[in-house]
Amino acid sequence: MKQKTFRIILAILITGISHINAQENKTKDIIDPCLSAKSNDYMDRQQEALLREVAEVMDANPPKYPAARIRQTALYLYDAVMHDKYVAFRKPVQDFFHMRIEKAITDIENTRVDEGAKIWKLYNMGFVIKTNSVTIVFDLVRAASADSKDFELSTDIIKRFAEQCDVLFVSHKHDDHQDKTVAQIFIDAGKPVVAPDQFWKEDPIYSKITHLKREANKVQELKIKNGKMNLNVVIYPGHQMSGTDVNVPLVLTPEGINVAHLGDQINEGAFMIDYDWIDKVSNNFHVDIMFPTNWTNELTRIAKGFDPEMTILGHEDELGHKVYDRDPFWGDTVFSEPSLKEFLSSGYPYLMMIWGESYHYIPKKK
User: Fold this and answer.
1) Which residue positions in the chain have pLDDT lower than 70?
2) Residue 44 falls in which region: left (phi positive, over 0), alpha (psi -120 to 50) or beta
3) What is the DSSP code string of 129-150?
4) Integer Cα distance of 366 and 364 in angstroms
5) How far apart (Å, rounded) are the C-alpha atoms in residues 333 and 315?
6) Is 77 exposed, middle or buried (0-12, 13-18, 19+ CB in 10 A)?
7) How far is CA 241 from CA 260, 269, 335, in A?
8) Which pLDDT value is given to residue 241?
9) What integer pLDDT is reported at residue 26 of this predicted model?
């Protein structure tokens, strides 16, 4: 009897505590369950304020090399916001992301490039490059890897990118680089999608993907603009350890501006063989812009092989990664390679950019 009474009392207490917690954390499914509702509200207000400051600093000091010192401070502030475990579920961050990408696509829609190339940074390793004759995009995703539906980009905005871009290059099979919904939108728009043949094999979309040969220094023709233009492309046979094929495209634009996107190319162990081609890229082609991750090892050696006029780093603060693995702009050498800090002092020009920022590259006069 006593045991039964005790269980009843315990059940009442648990129910009462649960009710209190539910009242305190009405939105705990989308915020930090370790914090009270008031504390979560504070975190939202703080992130809104910090991101407003970041945007103001970045807009007043656009990307250039060498960067204004205040940009570095703003990037570190941005890192601090993005290392909240639940950041992708916070509305101020969602609004900031959507606003920045909306800004980018609107700019792309309204920009005519008469000289050089204009580059926009999207999410993670997503970049749009626009010249006078062609617009290409690498690793465009909705950001589904962040696992927050309210953070994801809408299909409507992806359709706007598909309307503006002539081709989508997908580097490899990981969800922060490939997005089947995005690929299907490009295919439906009559735009080629170039990717390795390592994924989507069991899906009808596989037959619609363009699988160019992965061969160092081999220039291949890719038909774009409904077959009206041939774009010259080299697909270097890269890897991300663990048997993951990474396409490393070098796109040779009609204007003579050559851009190389490295996806998650990283060289360790058995894949040191990739240096057979990495070390010699510049012997065969001039590279204007290189897009590597900020965390790859031996970044300076890679830069020596490609010898780019400008390096634009990517993959910072990928929200689908665990907090310790969201590689920051400041370069965490405890978890990650010391490669980034070594590269930043190597003398190669570089840019660090946040979502939606753009940079107008003007090649040097030859």
Assistant:
1) 1-30, 242, 269-271, 366
2) alpha
3) EE-SS-EEEES----GGG--TT
4) 6
5) 16
6) middle
7) 20, 8, 17
8) 79
9) 43
Q: Which two tokens stand for residue 24?
A: 């305190």
Report the first-to-last Cα separation within the chain, whole angstroms: 94
C-alpha pair distances (Å), 97 with each of 63, 163, 359: 18, 21, 18
What's the token pair of residue 179? Answer: 């997005």
In this predicted structure, what is the pLDDT of residue 25? Answer: 40
The tokens for 214 are 């992965």
- Homologous superfamily of the 38-361 domain (CATH): Ribonuclease Z/Hydroxyacylglutathione hydrolase-like (3.60.15.10)
Q: Residues in the chain, how many?
A: 366
Q: Are 170 and 192 in contact (CB under 8 A)?
A: no
Number of Cα atoms under 13 Å in the Cβ half of residue 75: 23
Model confidence over 90-143: pLDDT tens digits?
999 999 999 999 999 999 999 999 999 999 999 999 999 999 999 999 999 999
Place of tokens 């990981």: 174
DSSP string, 158-176: HHHHHHH-SEEE---SSTT
Token readout for 248 is 């490393």
The pLDDT, as a whole number, for residue 20 is 44
Task: Extract the tokens encoding 98.
Answer: 């959507």
